[in-house]
């Protein structure tokens, strides 16, 4: 673990053009054209939390910043737009039994690839898997999954524990977040997407 006194602030990130020709400000402008002000604030909070984690756990900050800013890019698409995309892009048709909560990750990854020209698989997978996780998440995916849970705007019971845990053990935080989410879904008696169970089995069960 690194000393955290020299932590990079989000607005100190300058993109290299390795992943997109746009600057960070241009990416934020484009994101703000499709998201409400409230959700843009969430996205910037996720970037802030994700960059702290990237510093602590030694991940590529440019990939992490882009994945964070773009993780909810599809969140305000209509159900009809998302359904059309699931079909036209030959995505898993089982998705059609779910809704926006499950769709916006995988649909977002495709939109971001098309609209931003981003090809990097780590960035796209982090967007794709940010809601339900995956059994084999790399460091960028792990960071976005956790940052979405602990960003400064979140206020549910358990978030403080997750924030403290994230300072010492990223994998433990994934286990904690996954258990919290599954318990919440069981409590609400809603459908659990099978990949969420796969994430639970890989990262949380019997740990
Ligand atoms: P947000 O996009 O920043 O609001 O956060 P997420 O993308 O992480 O989650 C969106 C919503 O999906 C949250 O309300 C989660 O509780 C919910 N969610 C996560 N996993 C599942 C699942 O397996 N099934 C269902 N029905 N909802 C889920
Ligand atoms: Fe999301
Ligand atoms: Fe989010």
Structural account:
The protein is globular, with a radius of gyration of 16 Å. The N terminus is likely disordered. The two termini are 22 Å apart. The chain has 207 residues and is mainly α. 38% of the residues are buried. It is built from ten helices and no strands. The structure holds guanosine-5'-diphosphate and fe (iii) ion (2 copies). One fe (iii) ion binds next to loops.
Give the distance, in angstroms, between the N- and C-terminal Cα atoms: 22 Å
Q: What is the residue-averaged pLDDT?
A: 95
- Low-confidence region ranges: 1-5
Q: Can you summarize the main beta sheet?
A: none
The radius of gyration is: 16 Å
Question: What small molecules does the structure contain?
Answer: guanosine-5'-diphosphate, fe (iii) ion
Looking at the structure, what is the overall shape?
globular
Question: What structural category arises from helix and sheet content?
Answer: mainly alpha
Strand content: under 5%
User: Count of DSSP helices?
Assistant: 10
- How many strands in all? 0
Which series of helices and strands comes N to C? HHHHHHHHHH
Helix content: 55-70%
Summarize this structure as a short list of keywords or feature phrases.
207 residues; binds guanosine-5'-diphosphate; 10 helices; mainly alpha; binds fe (iii) ion; 60% helix
Summarize the entry for a quick read.
The protein has ten helices and no strands. By secondary structure, the protein is mostly helical. Helix 6 runs parallel beside helix 7.
């Amino acid at each position: 673990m690194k000393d955290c006194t020299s932590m990079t602030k989000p607005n100190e990130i300058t993109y290299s053009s390795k992943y997109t020709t746009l600057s960070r400000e241009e990416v934020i402008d484009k994101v703000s054209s499709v998201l409400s002000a409230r959700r843009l604030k969430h996205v910037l909070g996720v970037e802030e939390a994700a960059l702290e984690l990237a510093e602590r756990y030694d991940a590529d900050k440019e990939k992490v910043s882009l994945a964070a800013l773009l993780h909810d890019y599809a969140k305000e698409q209509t159900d009809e737009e998302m359904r059309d995309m699931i079909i036209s892009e030959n995505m898993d048709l089982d998705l059609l039994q779910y809704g926006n909560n499950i769709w916006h990750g995988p649909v977002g990854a495709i939109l971001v690839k098309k609209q931003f020209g981003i090809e990097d698989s780590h960035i796209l997978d982090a967007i794709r898997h940010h809601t339900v996780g995956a059994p084999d998440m790399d460091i960028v995916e792990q960071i976005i999954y956790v940052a979405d849970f602990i960003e400064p705007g979140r206020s549910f019971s358990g978030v403080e524990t997750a924030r403290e845990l994230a300072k010492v053990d990223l994998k433990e935080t994934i286990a904690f977040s996954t258990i919290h989410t599954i318990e919440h879904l069981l409590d609400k008696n809603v459908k659990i997407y099978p990949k969420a169970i796969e994430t639970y089995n890989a990262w949380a069960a019997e740990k």
